[in-house]
Amino acid sequence: MKQKIILYPPTLNWDFLTQRPQQIVKQFARRGWTVVFCNNTQSDKPPEEVETNLFVYHNFEEVLKLIKHRSIKVDIFYYTWAKSAQYVEDIKAKINIYDSVDSFSDWYEYEDDAIKKADIVLTSSQFLYDLRGKSSESTYLVRNACPESYINKPSQIPEEYKTLNGPIALFSGAIGSWVDTRLIRKVAEKYTTVLVGQEFGKECPSNVIKLGTKDHDDLYNYYAHADVCLLPFNTKLEITQAACAIKMFEHMAAGKITVATKWMETEIYDEAVLVADNDDEFLAQVDKAIELGKMDTYKDICLKHAKENTWEKRSEQILKAINDYCLKSGVILD
Question: What InterPro entries would the database entry show (predicted)?
Fold first, then answer.
């Protein structure tokens, strides 16, 4: 039996952080599919097999030519950027899957076409599920997650932490428009606060220690040896309401409590995520999380949630959606 092929179009670079698309296509590769992941940065570099069955291509035009000449026959076209639906007719996949992972105003004009051309629509949050489900009956809620291998794995104290006075509060990821930097600054006025990540159109508060970006595997050490992890998003923004933060599950995998501003996606993980409606409550929850984090009971609660929310389990949800579609439509994946 030939390997089934899943194609992901140019949207982001394979080695740019480790986000939902990389995690999901890894799961397909580990289940025996051939993954064609098209890097966003285009070059004449030859394809690279970055993991068994998982190939990063650097020239999308070349991929389209291979498809046109039937050297590559795509079973599933999987796209997370609405505008990528423009390639559906060229790729001629047996199944088109649109994974709606954000809600940006710049994307609005492409959303209808992305959903119309999709046989299956995945959504990463309840907000997006409610929104996209109005246009497609084949809409599924598949939240973000953490890798099984990430859960409670051995860790080392980061060198940067060894010179810091604790407790340590950590914010990881990009400092973008959706991040409430005012709250981070207030936490940093009381506790040593670090950023592991980068500024992305918004400045990190000056009283926060910037440690730069880290490899995804190394990032675990920064979670595991922090005292509390922060998720201070601006809940007035639609982008926040649509968000399901991957870092929240990765905090859990390291046994760490998250303190978050309150929206639908942060309210459903009892005791592993402490939520707040306002600044004072957020700061109080940080105090509480630091104390609770000293207790093994709370580490176990976080790990329990992590085990229930893995990319392996998410891939089972996606495969079930694919199988349901095949049964309904008569499409056969060889």
Answer: YkvP/CgeB_Glyco_trans-like
